[in-house]
Amino acid sequence: MQILIATGNAHKLSELSRVLPAILPSGEKIEYKSLRDFNITLPEETGTTLQENATLKAAYAAKESGLMALSDDTGLEVDFLHGAPGVHTARYAGDTCDTKANNEKLLHALDGVPLEQRTARFVTVACLAWPDGKTQLFEGVCPGHIALGYHGTNGFGYDPIFMVDELNKCFAELTADEKNAVSHRGRAFNKTREFLLGFKHI
Questions:
Q1: How many domains does the chain have?
Q2: What is the CATH number of the domain that holds 41?
Q3: Which of the residues 73, 79, 98, 177 is marked catalytic?
Protein backbone atom coordinates (compact mmCIF):
# COMPACT_ATOMS: atom_id res chain seq x y z
CA MET A 1 0.00 0.00 0.00
CA GLN A 2 1.00 3.59 -0.48
CA ILE A 3 0.56 6.57 1.83
CA LEU A 4 1.19 10.12 0.70
CA ILE A 5 3.09 12.25 3.18
CA ALA A 6 1.60 15.65 2.36
CA THR A 7 4.68 17.79 2.85
CA GLY A 8 7.46 19.28 0.79
CA ASN A 9 9.68 19.64 3.86
CA ALA A 10 12.62 17.23 3.51
CA HIS A 11 13.42 17.41 7.26
CA LYS A 12 9.88 16.42 8.17
CA LEU A 13 9.83 13.60 5.62
CA SER A 14 13.08 12.24 7.04
CA GLU A 15 11.72 12.33 10.60
CA LEU A 16 8.52 10.55 9.63
CA SER A 17 10.31 7.80 7.74
CA ARG A 18 12.07 6.90 11.00
CA VAL A 19 8.85 6.72 13.01
CA LEU A 20 6.13 5.28 10.79
CA PRO A 21 5.91 1.52 10.11
CA ALA A 22 7.45 0.03 6.98
CA ILE A 23 5.37 -3.12 7.18
CA LEU A 24 2.01 -4.11 8.65
CA PRO A 25 1.38 -7.16 10.87
CA SER A 26 -0.24 -8.80 7.83
CA GLY A 27 3.09 -8.58 6.03
CA GLU A 28 1.90 -5.86 3.67
CA LYS A 29 4.59 -3.27 3.01
CA ILE A 30 3.92 0.46 3.18
CA GLU A 31 5.48 2.72 0.59
CA TYR A 32 5.56 6.37 1.56
CA LYS A 33 5.25 8.93 -1.21
CA SER A 34 5.84 12.67 -0.98
CA LEU A 35 4.36 15.66 -2.76
CA ARG A 36 7.37 15.52 -5.05
CA ASP A 37 5.88 12.35 -6.54
CA PHE A 38 2.68 14.17 -7.50
CA ASN A 39 1.85 17.43 -9.18
CA ILE A 40 -0.01 18.65 -6.11
CA THR A 41 0.26 22.04 -4.44
CA LEU A 42 -1.29 22.14 -1.00
CA PRO A 43 -3.87 24.84 -0.31
CA GLU A 44 -3.06 27.82 1.87
CA GLU A 45 -3.26 27.17 5.59
CA THR A 46 -6.36 29.24 6.33
CA GLY A 47 -7.40 27.40 9.50
CA THR A 48 -7.46 29.11 12.87
CA THR A 49 -6.30 25.99 14.71
CA LEU A 50 -3.66 23.32 14.21
CA GLN A 51 -6.42 20.74 13.81
CA GLU A 52 -8.05 22.69 10.99
CA ASN A 53 -4.79 23.17 9.09
CA ALA A 54 -3.69 19.54 9.41
CA THR A 55 -7.09 18.32 8.21
CA LEU A 56 -7.21 20.82 5.36
CA LYS A 57 -3.88 19.65 3.94
CA ALA A 58 -4.39 15.91 4.43
CA ALA A 59 -7.94 15.88 3.03
CA TYR A 60 -6.89 17.85 -0.04
CA ALA A 61 -3.88 15.62 -0.70
CA ALA A 62 -5.96 12.45 -0.32
CA LYS A 63 -8.64 13.70 -2.70
CA GLU A 64 -6.14 14.84 -5.33
CA SER A 65 -3.89 11.75 -5.18
CA GLY A 66 -6.44 9.03 -4.52
CA LEU A 67 -4.21 7.74 -1.72
CA MET A 68 -4.46 7.82 2.03
CA ALA A 69 -2.63 11.03 2.97
CA LEU A 70 -0.91 12.15 6.13
CA SER A 71 -0.26 15.74 7.09
CA ASP A 72 0.38 17.71 10.25
CA ASP A 73 0.54 21.19 11.67
CA THR A 74 2.74 22.27 14.53
CA GLY A 75 2.56 25.21 16.86
CA LEU A 76 4.91 26.60 19.49
CA GLU A 77 2.95 28.05 22.39
CA VAL A 78 4.84 30.40 24.73
CA ASP A 79 3.02 31.19 27.98
CA PHE A 80 4.62 34.61 28.48
CA LEU A 81 3.36 35.56 25.00
CA HIS A 82 -0.17 34.30 25.73
CA GLY A 83 0.21 31.27 23.46
CA ALA A 84 1.98 32.98 20.57
CA PRO A 85 3.22 32.24 18.00
CA GLY A 86 0.77 29.30 17.99
CA VAL A 87 -0.82 28.62 14.61
CA HIS A 88 1.51 31.22 13.08
CA THR A 89 4.67 29.44 14.25
CA ALA A 90 6.11 28.74 10.79
CA ARG A 91 5.62 32.34 9.65
CA TYR A 92 6.07 34.15 12.96
CA ALA A 93 8.41 36.77 11.48
CA GLY A 94 6.40 37.15 8.26
CA ASP A 95 5.20 35.12 5.28
CA THR A 96 8.60 35.26 3.57
CA CYS A 97 10.66 34.81 6.74
CA ASP A 98 13.28 32.16 7.39
CA THR A 99 14.19 30.12 10.45
CA LYS A 100 16.73 32.63 11.72
CA ALA A 101 14.21 35.47 11.54
CA ASN A 102 11.64 33.45 13.49
CA ASN A 103 14.15 32.56 16.20
CA GLU A 104 15.47 36.10 16.48
CA LYS A 105 11.97 37.56 16.76
CA LEU A 106 11.06 35.11 19.53
CA LEU A 107 14.25 35.71 21.49
CA HIS A 108 13.74 39.47 21.14
CA ALA A 109 10.14 39.18 22.39
CA LEU A 110 11.46 37.41 25.51
CA ASP A 111 14.47 39.66 26.03
CA GLY A 112 15.03 40.11 29.77
CA VAL A 113 12.49 37.44 30.74
CA PRO A 114 14.06 34.91 33.17
CA LEU A 115 14.18 31.25 32.20
CA GLU A 116 11.55 30.19 34.73
CA GLN A 117 9.02 32.49 33.01
CA ARG A 118 9.83 31.24 29.51
CA THR A 119 7.65 28.11 29.74
CA ALA A 120 6.40 26.81 26.42
CA ARG A 121 5.23 23.73 24.62
CA PHE A 122 5.33 22.37 21.12
CA VAL A 123 2.07 20.83 19.89
CA THR A 124 1.71 18.73 16.75
CA VAL A 125 -1.60 17.59 15.32
CA ALA A 126 -1.34 14.88 12.67
CA CYS A 127 -4.19 13.97 10.35
CA LEU A 128 -4.71 10.83 8.31
CA ALA A 129 -7.22 11.35 5.52
CA TRP A 130 -8.82 8.97 3.06
CA PRO A 131 -9.96 9.85 -0.47
CA ASP A 132 -13.59 9.38 0.63
CA GLY A 133 -13.26 12.23 3.16
CA LYS A 134 -12.76 10.22 6.35
CA THR A 135 -10.14 11.67 8.72
CA GLN A 136 -8.40 10.66 11.95
CA LEU A 137 -6.48 13.08 14.21
CA PHE A 138 -3.53 12.43 16.55
CA GLU A 139 -1.94 14.95 18.94
CA GLY A 140 1.50 15.10 20.52
CA VAL A 141 2.76 17.62 23.11
CA CYS A 142 6.28 18.35 24.33
CA PRO A 143 6.64 20.77 27.29
CA GLY A 144 9.72 22.92 27.68
CA HIS A 145 11.21 26.39 27.90
CA ILE A 146 12.58 28.91 25.44
CA ALA A 147 16.33 28.99 26.06
CA LEU A 148 18.23 32.22 26.68
CA GLY A 149 20.28 31.61 23.53
CA TYR A 150 21.20 29.09 20.88
CA HIS A 151 22.31 25.54 21.75
CA GLY A 152 23.27 22.72 19.38
CA THR A 153 23.52 22.36 15.64
CA ASN A 154 21.09 19.53 14.80
CA GLY A 155 17.51 19.72 13.65
CA PHE A 156 15.74 22.70 12.13
CA GLY A 157 13.30 25.49 12.93
CA TYR A 158 13.18 26.45 16.59
CA ASP A 159 15.26 23.42 17.66
CA PRO A 160 18.30 25.48 18.83
CA ILE A 161 16.22 27.54 21.27
CA PHE A 162 13.56 25.08 22.51
CA MET A 163 14.72 23.35 25.69
CA VAL A 164 12.98 20.04 26.48
CA ASP A 165 12.08 19.95 30.18
CA GLU A 166 12.67 16.24 30.78
CA LEU A 167 16.15 16.32 29.24
CA ASN A 168 17.22 19.90 30.04
CA LYS A 169 18.60 20.10 26.51
CA CYS A 170 17.53 21.87 23.36
CA PHE A 171 16.22 19.81 20.46
CA ALA A 172 19.27 20.83 18.43
CA GLU A 173 21.52 19.08 20.97
CA LEU A 174 19.79 15.72 20.41
CA THR A 175 20.29 13.04 17.79
CA ALA A 176 17.38 12.36 15.45
CA ASP A 177 16.40 9.24 17.41
CA GLU A 178 16.62 11.06 20.76
CA LYS A 179 14.46 13.85 19.41
CA ASN A 180 11.84 11.48 17.99
CA ALA A 181 11.55 9.77 21.38
CA VAL A 182 10.41 12.93 23.17
CA SER A 183 9.30 15.44 20.55
CA HIS A 184 5.76 16.63 19.90
CA ARG A 185 5.98 15.36 16.32
CA GLY A 186 7.42 12.04 17.44
CA ARG A 187 4.61 11.59 19.96
CA ALA A 188 1.88 12.50 17.45
CA PHE A 189 3.29 10.16 14.82
CA ASN A 190 3.91 7.35 17.29
CA LYS A 191 0.16 7.45 17.86
CA THR A 192 -0.28 7.41 14.08
CA ARG A 193 2.08 4.44 13.88
CA GLU A 194 0.07 2.50 16.48
CA PHE A 195 -3.13 3.29 14.60
CA LEU A 196 -1.71 1.99 11.32
CA LEU A 197 -0.37 -1.16 12.96
CA GLY A 198 -3.75 -1.89 14.51
CA PHE A 199 -6.01 -0.79 11.69
CA LYS A 200 -7.47 -3.79 9.85
CA HIS A 201 -9.28 -2.16 6.95
CA ILE A 202 -6.73 -0.08 5.07
A1: 1
A2: 3.90.950.10
A3: 73
